[in-house]
Amino acid sequence: MRYYTQQDIVFLKRKANDIRRDIIHMIHKAGAGHPGGSLSAADIVTALYFHVMRVDATNPEWEDRDRFILSKGHACPVWYAALAEKGYFGMEHLDTLRKFHSILQGHPVMVKTPGIDMTTGSLGNGLSLGIGMALSAKAKKKDYKVYVMLGDGELQEGMVWEAAMAGAHYNLDNLTAIIDNNGLQVDGWVQDIMNVYPIVEKFKAFGWYIIEINGHDMYEILNAFQEVSKVKGPVAIIAKTVKGKGVSFMENECKWHGLAPNDDEARMAFQELAREVV
Amino acid sequence: MAERIATRVAFGKELVELGKKYENFVVMDADIAKSCGTELFHKTFPQRSYNFGVAEQNLMGIAAGFASGGTKVFAATYGVFASMRTCEQLRTFVCYPNFDVNVIASHGGIQVGADGATHQAIEDIGIMRSLPGMTIIQPSDGTSAKLAARAVMEFKGPLYIRLLRNPSPIIFNESDYKFEIGKVVSVKDFGNDLAIFATGAMLLKSVQAAEILKEEGIHVKVIEIHTIKPLDENAVVKAAKETGAVITVEDHNIMCGLGSAVAEVLSEKCPTMMRRIGLKDVFAESGDSELLYSHYGMNTEHIIAAAREITALK
To answer: Which residues of B are annotated as catalytic?
Structure first.
């Protein structure tokens, strides 16, 4: 990735805010969806698509593109919004989320949506899928990178740790896992439902290089990805985030995991997200 | 004594030959390459081989991710693990995106014998049949397995290759056998009294039964169904029309396998008197496979008995 300027930071923060508005818009319009985990991931996904990743919206199948896998597939509104903002498809598609015949399915489906690099939705699978892509890059002597975003509740899936073992075993320096550590899952706080902590020490023990960041601080996000490119092995970015970030009444509220805002709530959310971002 | 070879071994050997001809495929295992017939490929082509240890779900997820780059991937494990431990990976990440992941599923059926029920895949065909877009093949001898491997190289898409643990006699000559995915093979055509549709390890028993029945004056067709999905419906209906009586023979639970597939087609297109031979919805024990076949009503004598019964009713 290229270095960044103060202007880049301002641009990315504003773009992340746009994407948050898109998320609320599309879930409100659909009457269903997952706002909490979409909003917690918004800053990182924005940084990836608008600064970090080597992608071309006019050529979504480009063989040399960097790949992104949203292993926590239920947060797809953030992915769809980023792709639409980036120009993979028209913004009008955001109005069709979860509707019959829409290119935007309830969970990400690569054969339906331009720019979706991998079908996801069943938790725990993304890191294995990413390892497959990373190994394929090595076999074909391609220099593309693979980024996999996982939820913290998702780390309860055993398959994640099978993949963690394999990522280190094959020393995949072209693979980065990003943990969206917002602390909440459907039934409550992750540490109460089934404690996954300490996440850092776990990945470290499996042989991964760890970078800890505030997942809403654009400087820290970009610095992390710059550091990634210097590491000779798989990297796990543990990003402390807030579920529902940016919409105060959704923040750290478990119920907004999979609930659509009604008209009034959407209006309130848009008011908050209309504030100028600098 | 005739040459004997297990289909897992024959398939694995041919994979090595194909590796010399074709560049664009890799082989992945979850520790048991030695048992799946893929170890020779690992040794011959280490750069195109991967082992992920005892972690089948991870194996299949990685296979899907790798195949997304356009490379054919063979992923090998036992049928019990491929169909159940990695069922979801096959469904959501192989079949749904339609990737060219070809599952080498060894140890099909109770032919596995002594390892017992935990390692005998008796429901894998049923599970795989219900995945949209999955093709299922099962060779019946060494020749069939070898030619299947060649056919698979020309094939693109999700594929389940059911192979057998134990060596069995060679049935076919390479010169007069054709393995075409989606087509049946006419093995014996003694007449129109009965059609026996057989797959895998049960083909030889069906041929032996047909020879004995011929002596009794019951003239049978034996048809190999190596592609269980998509089923060669035209050939099945044609044989049913010609004979008016059908027996299916498979080393699999009697539910959801070949017998069910044939019954589904015939009940809609050509209702025909039918008997299904297979494991009758129970778990089998450890033991010699021939003993098991006899105990569970799946041996040559059971095919003969079913043939006598059903032809007498005509």
So the answer is: 56
- Tokens 């790949």 belong to A67
The answer to the question of residue A246 being in a domain is yes
Burial of B177 (0-12, 13-18, 19+ CB in 10 A): middle
Domain covering B182-312, topology:
Rossmann fold (3.40.50)
CATH number of the domain to which A86 belongs: 3.40.50.970
- pTM for this predicted structure: 0.97
Cβ B143 vs Cβ B169: under 8 Å: no
In the structure, how many helices (H) and strands (E) does chain B have?
A: 13, 14
**What's the rounded Cα separation, in Å, for the pair B223 and B258?**
12
Cβ distance of A136 and B48 shorter than 8 Å? no
Residue indicated by tokens 């991998």: A118
- Chain A CB contacts of B50 under 8 Å are 135
Whether residue B69 and residue A166 make contact (CB cut-off 8 A), yes or no, is no
Q: At what angle do helices A6-30 and A218-228 cross, to 10 degrees?
A: 110
- The sign of the torsion formed by the CA atoms of B239, B240, B246, B247 equals positive
- As a whole number of angstroms, the distance between CA A74 and CA A267 comes to 23
Residue A140 touches partner B, C-beta closer than 8 Å:
yes
Sequence-distant (6+) residues with CB within 8 A of A275 are: none
**Identity of residue B241:** K
Cβ B247 vs Cβ B310: under 8 Å: yes
* Secondary structure of B43-56 in HEC code, one letter for each residue: HHCHHHEEECCCCH
Look at A110 and B97 and tell me if their CB atoms are within 8 Å: yes
Backbone φ/ψ region at B181: left (φ over 0), alpha (ψ -120 to 50), beta: beta
CATH of domain B4-169: 3.40.50.970
Strands A188-189 and A184-185: what pairing? Answer: antiparallel
Q: What is the largest CA-CA distance in chain A?
A: 53
Structural domain includes residue A262: yes
Query: CA–CA separation, B310 vs A235, rounded Å?
Result: 66
Query: Structurally, how many domains does chain A consist of?
Result: 1
Domain that holds residue A193: 6-273
Closest-approach residue (CA) in chain B for A121: B92
Judged by CB atoms closer than 8 Å, whether chains meet at B97 and A111 is answered as yes
Question: Measured between alpha carbons, how far is B148 from B151 in angstroms, rounded to an integer?
Answer: 5
Residue A196 CA to residue A190 CA, distance in Å, equals 7
User: What is the pairing mode between strands B49-51 and A209-214?
Assistant: unpaired
Which tokens sit at A178? 């990003």
CB B202 within 8 A of CB B151: no
Segments of chain B assigned to CATH 3.40.50.920: 182-312
pLDDT tens, residue order, chain A (278 aa): 789 999 999 999 999 999 999 999 999 999 999 999 999 999 999 999 999 999 999 999 999 999 999 999 999 999 999 999 999 999 999 999 999 999 999 999 999 999 999 999 999 999 999 999 999 999 999 999 999 999 999 999 999 999 999 999 999 999 999 999 999 999 999 999 999 999 999 999 999 999 999 999 999 999 999 999 999 999 999 999 999 999 999 999 999 999 999 999 999 999 999 977 76
Name the residue in chain A with its Cα closest to that of B88. Answer: A122
Q: What is the DSSP letter of B198?
A: E
